[in-house]
Amino acid sequence: MNFDFGEREEAFRKEVRAWLETHLPEDLRGRAFAASRADVNEVRRLRAWQKTMHEAGYVGMDWPREFGGRGATLVEQIILFQEMARAESPQLVNRGGVSMLGPTLMKHGTPAQQKRFLRNILTADELWCQGFSEPNAGSDLANLQTRAVRNGDHFVVTGQKVWTSMAHVADWCFLLVRTDPAAPRHKGISFLLVDMRSPGIAIRPLRQITGEAEFNEVFFDGVRVPAENLVGRLHEGWAVAITTLAYERDLLTFIRHISLRNALHRLVRLVREQGKGGDRLVRQKIAELWIGERALELNGYRSLTRILRGGQPGPEGSTSKLFWSQLDQELALTATQVVGPYSQIAHGSAWAPDDGQWEFYELLARGSGIRAGTSEILRNILGERVLGLPKD
Ligand SMILES: Cc1cc2nc3c(=O)[nH]c(=O)nc-3n(C[C@H](O)[C@H](O)[C@H](O)COP(=O)(O)OP(=O)(O)OC[C@H]3O[C@@H](n4cnc5c(N)ncnc54)[C@H](O)[C@@H]3O)c2cc1C
Fold first, then answer.
1. How does pLDDT run across 300-330, given as a tens digit for each residue?
2. Spatial distance between the Cα atoms of 58 and 84, rounded to a whole number of angstroms
C-alpha cells in the first residue's frame, strides 16, 4: 500500500478543506466528538448537514456511481475523513444507513429496493435505525423472538426490540424477525425493511447513563410490512444480517474514528490550556493514545482497501471495533484525569470545562465496549473465526 498523496490527491484535500471551512455550520463545529442523536433539534441540524455534504458529493463517495456514489478512490475517501476530523465536523447522522444498510442492500437487495432506498440514505431524507437486539437476544442474536407471519402480500410483525438507537427520529428500520419458528435458530430468520410510521409501532425511550435517551424500546403489534420489503430470501436473513454486522464492526468503526481523532486533538488542546504539557505522565499517556489512534487508522485503511476493491469485511474487522472501544475508553479516562474533579461537571454549568463535553464523553464511552458487539463476543469471534481456536 502506498499512502503518499500525489498532486491530484493534494488538490482534492485542498478542495474539501476549503469547502468544509465555508460550509460547516458554526453550531456543529467542535460538537464533533460528543454530538447527540437524542435531541430532535440536533438531529434536524445533523440531517441538514448530511444533505449539504451530499449535495457537494461528499456522502457515500466510495459507493458505485450507479447507486448515487462517486466511485471515489480509497485515498480520496481517507482524505475526506481526515479533513472532516480536522474541521471538527460531526459524523454523518445517517451512518447506520450509509455504512451498514447501504452496502447490505447493494449486495442482497433487489434492483427495486436499491432504487427505492439508496438515494434517500445518502441525502438523509430517510433516517434508519437498526432493529436487531431484543430483551433476550443481544450477544445471542439468533435467539430473537419477534415474529413475522406471511399474510397475502404482507408480513404481520409482532414482538419487541430494545436498545434501538434513534428509533424515535428514524423513518425506517432494518429489522430481524423470526419467520420459521420450527427451523434451527439461525435458519428461520428474515430481514425486513419497516416504515416506522406503520400503525402498530410504539416507541418508548430508554434513558442512558449520559442522561440522554438516544435509544429506545420498540414494540410491534400486528404491524403490516409489504412482502416486497423482504431483503434476501425468506428464512435466510441471518446471512444478510452477518453482512450488516460485518460492516458495522469494520467500516462504521472507521467512520467513528473521526470522533476519536477529534477528541484526541481536543484533549491535546486541553492539556496545553491547563499548562500540563510538561507533565511526563500526561505526555506519556497522550503519546500512547496518539500511537494507538494511528494504528487504528492504518488498520482501517486495510479494511477500506479490501472493501473498495470489491471485497467485503470479514471477521477480522472485529479487531478494529475491539481496539477502537478500548482506545475510546482510555481517552475518556485520560481526559478525566487531566481535568480532575471538574471533569464531573455536566454541560450547562459555568464550571464545566469544554462545556461539559468530557463528562458526557466519559459516560458515553461506557457503551463503546457493548454496542456493535461486546468486547467478549468480539474476542470470541477473533478466537474462533480468525485464529481457528475451539468454539466457546
Ligand atoms: C449505546 C448502544 C447503542 C445500541 N444500539 C443498538 C441499535 O441501534 N440496534 C440494536 O439492535 N442494538 C443496539 N444496541 C444493543 C447491543 O447490540 C447489545 O447491547 C449487545 O449486543 C449486547 O447484548 P445485551 O445488551 O443483550 O447483553 P448480553 O448479551 O446479555 O451480555 C451481557 C454480558 O455477558 C457477556 N456475554 C454474553 N455472551 C457471552 C459469551 N458467549 N462469552 C463471553 N461473554 C458473554 C457480554 O459480553 C456482556 O458483558 C446498542 C447498545 C448500546 C450500548
1. 888 878 877 777 788 888 898 999 999 999 9
2. 10
Is pTM, for the whole model, over 0.85?
Answer: yes
SS3 state at 200: coil
250-386, what's its fold?
A: Butyryl-CoA Dehydrogenase, subunit A; domain 3 (1.20.140)
Active-site choice (248, 297, 359, 362): 248
Distance of alpha carbon 52 from alpha carbon 44, whole angstroms: 12
Comparing CA positions, the residue from 6, 4, 44, 48 lying closest to residue 24 is 48
Collapsed DSSP state (helix, strand, coil) of residue 112 = helix
d(CA 178, CA 148): 6
Q: What is the pLDDT of residues 246-279, one digit of tens each?
A: 888 777 777 777 778 888 988 999 999 989 999 9
Residue 126 is a catalytic residue: no
E strand residue ranges, 16-72: none
Closest residue by CA, ligand 1 atom 1: 367
Q: Is the CB of 221 under 6 A from ligand 1?
A: no
Q: Decide: 15 in ligand 1 pocket, CB within 6 A.
A: no
Domain 128-235 fold: Butyryl-CoA Dehydrogenase, subunit A; domain 2 (2.40.110)
